[in-house]
Amino acid sequence: MTEEDRCNTPVRCDEVSHLLDFLIERDVPCPMCGYNLRNLTEPRCPECRQSLSLTVGSAEIRLRWFLAAITPGLFSGIAAAFLMIPIVIASVSGFGPPWDVIGIDAFGWTSGLVALGLMARRRTFLRQSSAVQRAIAIGLWAIHALVLALLLAGAP
Question: Which of 45, 92, 94, 131 could form a disulfide with 30 if both were Cys (CB 3.0 to 4.6 A apart)?
Fold first, then answer.
């Protein structure tokens, strides 16, 4: 393989050169198949044909507040999905579900969608400072605690 085949632009060629130089005397497994990449001659695993790149990764990803932030929403969303069963049964049987049950279910679906949105935007969340992440997580838990308190206060 020629130098021109390995890289399309000067920047890409430089990246490829750094990768191959890094692997020349190191025993590094392919991230896909585990094949030893020592003395690699092209930026592709010879075993599984996975394209390779040399990147910088975080030694420690701060997931604590992210997980704390999505937990109440995921739980509420799952509970809302199960609550749909008696709502549909009540609707089909002609009785109709009580409005407070429909409200609880709507909150659960909304909360679940917020959690899914937060998961989709997790990189944005993780770029925030730990204090901002903590504030978001505590805020979401506070909203859920408030709704639970209101539900318990209205229960007979």
Answer: 45
